[in-house]
Amino acid sequence: MGSGSACRRGRSKPVLRRLIRYSEKIFDLGEVLGEVSDRRLRPRIPTLALLQSVLVLYWARLGSLHALETVRGASFWRRWLGQALASADTVGRVHTQLENQGLRRGLQHVYRRLKRNKALRGVGEWDIAVVDGHENHASYRRHCSGCLKRTLHTEQGEKIQFYHRQVTLMLRCEKMRLLLDVEAQLPGEQEVATALRLLQRVLQAYPRAFQLLMADALYAQAPFLNFLISHGKQVLLVLKEERRDLYQDVLGVLPLVTPQKGQYRSRDCLWWDVPDLTSWSKVSVPLRVVRSEETYEVRRQSSKQLSQERSAWMWVTTLPAARASTALVVHLGHARWDIENYGFNELVNSWHADHIYRHDPHAIEAFTLLAFLAYNLFHAFLARNIKPQLRCTKTESFWAQLITAQIYTEAGRRLTARSP
User: Fold this and answer.
1) What CA–CA distance (Å, rounded) separates 372 from 54?
2) How does residue 407 score in pLDDT terms, banded at 50, 70 and 90?
3) pLDDT tens across 223-261, in order?
4) What is the pLDDT of residues 54-63, one digit of tens each?
5) 3-state percent breakdown (helix, strand, coil) of the chain, nearest 5
6) Are strands 287-299 and 177-184 parallel, antiparallel or unpaired?
7) How far apart are the first and last CA of the chain?
8) Contact assessment for residue 326 and residue 262, using Cβ atoms and an 8 Å cutoff
């Protein structure tokens, strides 16, 4: 056989094709999305084709439905969808009528397959989830029935601003992060109430997905803690509120506790661990508070000189000392930022998930759930299908840009072929 055949045999498949084949083989992507319906009576374009096109919109980081429409000429669409790509208006309009619960079932299916394949190992003996809120849109003009609103004092006087805020739950595993679900905050509702509504649904759909829930100081409220304790879950929260009796109680006890020396990454630490605190009488169990004072060096960008910095952290938790050491609590407490660094920041800056593709509360939720599905499949593909020597030497954006390049190359080739 000639050398040309050998070259063709060794030529790697485009990343997008490999990602789709992996998603079909491991997660039955076509069947899962095929079960999602919408409210159209006689649809001319299958719902499946529209969902598949939005997944590629996220994988290729296109950023808008109009950008998606500019690459309609790529031959890829007919190969995967079996038809031409729908218009931007059609994609947006159908997402206002989608059965979003079907998208949630798709996320649950991906979780179950990864769990069965032992890809979702926790940190130590703990399976961990992180919950947090995120504001993904703000405008003085555009608004819909799902918009929250607030009055801002500006140089031009008081102005009403409309915005959307959502609460997200992310599974934090040893080698992966998995976005499980999202809930929109309703007008007149506090974020913690939204989180409780989200957790009620998540605990039914994912009863054993996590043992420990982490959140920031906003969630340090008795109803939130009691809800999780009643469902057999452990809690780890940032403790900041100086007016709390628990906070003042800890400050009074700290001088009586001998700190232990420790280290978090390159930081030298002093740790105080105070168990069995009952100052928070509205919480149904005694609590444990861990304080960490950390010293580290920072190189100033202007002078290039090293300066020594100090920071102090405090966490309240139900974790028993026998199963979670002080060092582990400090490590987990800092890991709460994963939902910011690997969740919201990545989704916003790389995936354009905060873009309002259709200003309708139902459509916003549908696009967010599809962004979560695209995120989970993409990261599972990188972690489970790309060889470690390649994965360690290439950034995630490298693989995303290869997908973008494939789409634009095919669309450009079609335009060139049509040119006189």
Assistant:
1) 12
2) very high
3) 999 999 999 999 999 998 765 678 888 888 888 899 999
4) 999 999 999 9
5) 45, 25, 30
6) unpaired
7) 39
8) yes
Find out whether 148 and 162 touch, Cβ atoms under 8 Å: yes
Domain ranges of the chain: 235-334
Residue 80 or residue 246, greater confidence? 80
Instruction: Note the Cα 117 to chain centre separation in Å.
Output: 21
Q: What is the DSSP letter of 344?
A: I
Among residues 265, 190, 270, 192, the alpha carbon closest in space to that of 235 is found at 192
What is the residue whose two structure tokens read 């009576």? 41
Q: Which residues contact 20 (CB under 8 A, 6 or more apart)?
A: 29, 80
Helices then strands, each counted (H, E), the chain: 17, 10
Question: Cα–Cα distance between 363 and 369 in angstroms, integer?
Answer: 10
Rounded distance, CA 361 to CA 136, Å? 12
For 112-141, the DSSP string reads HHHHHTT----BTTB-EEEEEEEEEEEESS
Segment among 41-55, 118-132, 236-250, 266-280 with least mean pLDDT: 236-250
Distance between CA atoms of residues 267 and 255, nearest Å: 22
The rounded distance, in Å, linking the Cα atoms of 224 and 71 is 47
State the residue for tokens 């930022």. 337
Task: Give the residue carrying structure tokens 């605990």.
Answer: 203
Of the candidates 214, 187, 181, 219, the one whose C-alpha atom is nearest the C-alpha of residue 200 is 181
- Grade residue 127 by pLDDT with cuts at 50, 70 and 90: very high
As a whole number of angstroms, the distance between CA 303 and CA 119 comes to: 45
Q: Are 173 and 234 in contact (CB under 8 A)?
A: no
